[in-house]
Amino acid sequence: MARGTLADTYVAAIQHDLADLPADTTRVGVVRRPTSWFHAAVDENQPALGPPADLLESMRHREEDMKMQGLCEEGAHNAAWDQVGFEEAYREHLETEAKAQAALATLEDRLAAGESVALVCYENTEKKRCHRTILREVLEERDP
């Protein structure tokens, strides 16, 4: 059986029919605290694959500081990302947190079995960096 495809998108793209996903793609949310409207746009959510709460909190504080210094929302977000070492911290979370490891293994098995999956969160990555992109890279790196 052919391996399933792996994609990623953001919730607003799904809500506004802008996400270019094949019809049989399972939309897997990867957010720690989904809203009811987020749940309505995805087939399931894997909160263990969302960034840790403390990382999100430090990111939010740095982003607010950057906005106060005059940076636009996207600029503040991306600068804060670098300052808190977001990518490294998130990758470490995926490598060391047991629930994240289990959720990754499940997604790997589903992809290997031929299921097509789209990772979904809130950020539009055309302007902002996002954990979803790192998660997709990690899954692609682990592909046998």
UniProtKB/TrEMBL annotation:
<feature type="domain" description="DUF488">
    <location>
        <begin position="22"/>
        <end position="142"/>
    </location>
</feature>
<protein>
    <submittedName>
        <fullName>DUF488 domain-containing protein</fullName>
    </submittedName>
</protein>
<dbReference type="InterPro" id="IPR054495">
    <property type="entry name" value="DUF488-N3a"/>
</dbReference>
<dbReference type="Pfam" id="PF22751">
    <property type="entry name" value="DUF488-N3a"/>
</dbReference>
